[in-house]
């Protein structure tokens, strides 16, 4: 499920710029706690650097290789990252008018209403169909 949305951003804005401006880091630190209060993490690529609540793939140190466990972790997390990308793709598949080709422009069309509504309906679809 998609649980956090910020305001609309122009398509040419970088992932890091959106990350910084959306203040999602605060939400992660506030909400990413396990049942017993332990810190949970969001898996991100190198774009986001080292930050609280964000972790990336294991990388081999100089003249060494990853352990089998580290390789398995990287593979599993990579698959989860793909699933996250698919969640946003599902919004576009279900609500085709939200695609880039439709030419929505911030300030000229109510993207700030359209997209959150489509995400809510997509989350409902996901829960109902267990998909």
TrEMBL record:
Its cofactor is a divalent metal cation. It comes from Choiromyces venosus 120613-1. It holds the Pfam family DDE_Tnp_4. Signal peptide: none annotated. This is DDE Tnp4 domain-containing protein. Residues 4-123 form the DDE Tnp4 domain. Keywords: Metal-binding. The keyword Cytoplasm does not apply. One of its GO terms (molecular function) is metal ion binding. It comes from the Eukaryota.
């Amino acid at each position: 499920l998609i649980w956090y949305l910020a305001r609309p951003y122009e398509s040419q804005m970088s992932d890091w710029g959106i990350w910084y401006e959306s203040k999602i880091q605060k939400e992660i630190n506030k909400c990413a706690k396990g049942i017993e209060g332990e810190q949970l993490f969001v898996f991100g690529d190198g774009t986001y650097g080292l930050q609280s609540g964000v972790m990336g793939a294991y990388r081999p140190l100089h003249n060494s290789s990853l352990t089998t466990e580290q390789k398995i972790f990287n593979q599993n997390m990579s698959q989860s990252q793909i699933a996250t990308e698919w969640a946003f793709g599902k919004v576009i598949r279900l609500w085709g008018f939200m695609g880039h080709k439709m030419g929505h422009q911030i300030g000229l069309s109510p993207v700030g209403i359209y997209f959150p509504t489509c995400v809510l309906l997509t989350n409902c679809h996901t829960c109902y169909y267990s998909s």
